[in-house]
Amino acid sequence: MAFKRGKPNEKxxxxxxxAPDEVHIGLTFPPHSTPLLVMHHLSDLHVCDAQSPIRPxxxxxxxxxxxxxxxxxxxxxTYRAHSMLSAHVVExxxxxxxxxxxxxxxxxxxxxxxxxxxxxxxxxxxEVNWYLALLDGQSVRPDSGTFDRYEGVMDDGADxxxxxxxxPHGTPAGKEDDQARARYGFPVVAGLLDSCRAxxxxxxxxxxxxxxxGNHDALLQGTVTPNAGTQxxxxxxxxxxxxxxxxxxxxxxxxxxxxxxxxxxxxxxAPYVTVTxxxxxxxxxRGEFAALHLQSPGLPKGHGFTDQNARDKNMYYATExxxxxxxxxxxxxxxxxxxxxxxxxxxQWLEAQIISADxxxxxxxxxxxxxxxxxxxxxxxxxxxxxxxxMLVKYPKVILxxxxxxxxxxxxxxxxLESNTGLWQVETAxxxxxxQQSRTVEVVRDDKGDxxxxxxxxxxxxxxxxxxxxxxxxxxxxxRVLSANAWQKRPAPGLEDVxxxxxxxxxxxxxxLQIPKR
Length: 518
Hints:
The protein has 518 residues and is of the alpha/beta class. The chain is built from 14 helices and 21 strands.
């Protein structure tokens, strides 16, 4: 069952309503086919330690509807009212995907799943461990610092109460209601800051799954290369509440670049709240990201990464899945900035892997081709969109590219469709923003040799009712409705409906695509 946003009330709050599953549009899927690849596609899990003191949530307040800088800054994304519910959304998604054992169009068995990056939100070791435990079916405790209380910006203690953030437990005595509830209709959910931190046993995917490196898996807030200063702040006991007097908003935004380098503002005289220090919040190192996957018990061992990835600190690999060569690209520019590119060594490796493949090739990366323009490099040359596209369209065996990053459903042809030169690129929405969906991808060949690609969107197991929010699936239901009501993304005069953009059109969701025989 799918979900749609209902009509807004006087405060703009929309409950969700159940809706029938969408029919598939496009071509007719062949009744008889040979499976090449049937794969679940998850992206942008953003498993988040929302209590981490290094998170600059205060920057997001400049994007609120009452901010004079709203049009200037757009949507920043350092704070979400449901960030602390991210682990529960992954659990609910796994439960849904585990019920899809066969392609809904072809009936062929599912070979594997792939997660196209931004598995974590802030490149922290504890976030990596949580995400691995969720997908591999281990015990998860999505909590950090002290286990005695919640210590993020939604802390409802009277000393730390800030009306700019949602406080699900209500209003402390002597304080005014927060703006999320007073202006935007957000609910009171008693006990949520305790239930969301409770340990639970994750279900785990019932198929082998493959990992992809994303910018939030390597860079703080997906942008800043960790350094000695940020590493110390991540594990320390100070959560800063606003900018220092020496730093303007303009200077801060200029330091967070989509094309690197990027850095955090200095703490200087910024006011702070004392929280519990936690060594597990340290930034994960590049080689360590692969090593942690190798230590996890799920299949395949390393989830695509090998000992060589851990030693060489490169996060790309190739493997055979179904009847295709799956080539996983690391599109992260580790020098900084949230957009993507490749170094020359990886670009040459990629072409060599394509050339040596015996059959069809499917690519997977975090960034889609449109966002591969981060050419910043203090040394060497970064390979960007134009060079990558020119190389790929030379090889007819390359048929599909799976990506995320944009938090949207989107389907696009790379190359010249009329001459059948190029490949399909499929972006899948995130777990953290509306509509919180993944999808199943079916790639088959018919008797004539034509290739068909069937795409089917999958909702997580949370329902439309969020009143209880005690179990992981109930908490995931709450997360979905909160994501549909983010106040910064609500339609307004002159502003795009960001949520509608993320959901995409019917041609970006349930659709059948074709590549004629080559």
